[in-house]
Amino acid sequence: MDSAMARHDINRSFEMAVFVTVVEAGSFTAAACKLALTPSAVSKLVNRLEARLGARLLQRSTRQLHTTPEGDAFYAQSKRILDDIDGAEREAAQGAAPRGRLRINCFVPFGVRHLLPILPEFARRYPDIVLDVVVSDAVVDLLEDRTDIAIRTGKLKESNLVARKLGEDTMVVVASPGYLERHGTPRTLADLDQHNLLAFNFRCQNETWPFLDGAGGTLQVTPQGNTQISDGDSMRQLVLAGMGLGRFSRLHVQPDIDRGLLVPVLEAFNPGDSEIVHAVFVGPGQQVPARVRVMLDYLLEKVKLA
After folding, report:
1. How far apart are CA 280 and CA 162, in angstroms?
2. Cβ neighbours around 21 below 10 Å, total
3. Rounded to whole angstroms, how far apart are CA atoms 214 and 217?
4. Band of the pLDDT at 62, cuts 50, 70, 90?
5. Is the pTM higher than 0.85?
6. Distance of CA 213 to the CA centre of its chain
7. Which domains are seen in the chain, by residue range?
8. 222: helix, coil or strand?
9. How large is the average pLDDT for residues 45-64?
10. By the number of CB atoms within 10 A of the CB, which of 50, 60, 69, 292 ranks highest?
11. What φ, ψ does residue 212 adopt, rounded to 5°?
């Protein structure tokens, strides 16, 4: 029974390898040359794979092959699985030393204040790991973007991803002293109607700011302003320049508050809500490579959030 299951797994990985080669080569004939198979054998194998999955992965014409949406998703996941298998074999052959390319995606304030400063020491510890870091507030699909670890805030949707909590941070509404001199300091929630509330354009359209309503509950205020912006650090720059009010995590703006460049407002109405910061990675069912594992442990060791 065990040997039959092993043969089945080997066949599945071979099917993935053949499909990936077909997609990358662009034709059955070119893939067959790379795999030392006949074009008909490659075609039959892909047909068998589609039949087993119950989904069409390729659109065929006399001259070209195109992946379907299902084919795109299967290609991305197959590529990652095959890369992980190769990495596991290399690690085993080389004494499990962490090595290879490690792609990390993190939001801007965390990257600037927490991740980038600790990377030099990590690079000294693990000289065989090549760091590929993307600092952006855009949310990526880990599989499609071939990202190993993503640093994210807020609630996580249920998925096949695993999250390690790095900490959490409270939220604060701030403005520059210059803006408050020109427009006045809001003292009540009703005063917000007279102010420019800056919003993000990468989040869902129902983004709201919560405030205590004075009666034991919270009131959600939809930011209404003349500008929407794509990332937190750009919004911080606009608020520093006196363009309006912005809502940030404290880790993002606390240095500006300490220097007097930004001023918290409506703190009496601050509900004290917080955002949890997670390191997210592909979860159970796929081996976590050593390069990913050591970075996760390093983040837990080095990142200290209030």
Report:
1. 6
2. 18
3. 7
4. low
5. no
6. 34
7. 2-93 (1.10.10.10), 100-166+276-302 (3.40.190.10), 169-273 (3.40.190.10)
8. coil
9. 86
10. 292
11. -65, 135
178 close to 207: Cβ distance less than 8 angstroms: no
| Token representation of residue 296 | 């996760």
Confidence of residue 124 (pLDDT cuts 50, 70, 90): very high
CA of residue 80 relative to chain centroid, distance: 16
Strand stretches in 118-213, DSSP E: 129-135, 149-153, 161-175, 199-200, 209-212
Measured CA to CA, the distance from residue 249 to residue 173 in angstroms comes to: 9
In single-letter form, the type of residue at position 152 comes to R
Give the C-alpha separation, 102 to 214, whole Å. Answer: 48
The Cα-based distances of 179 to 76, 82, 184, 190, 261 in angstroms read 48, 54, 8, 18, 11
**What is the residue whose two structure tokens read 């855009």?**
138
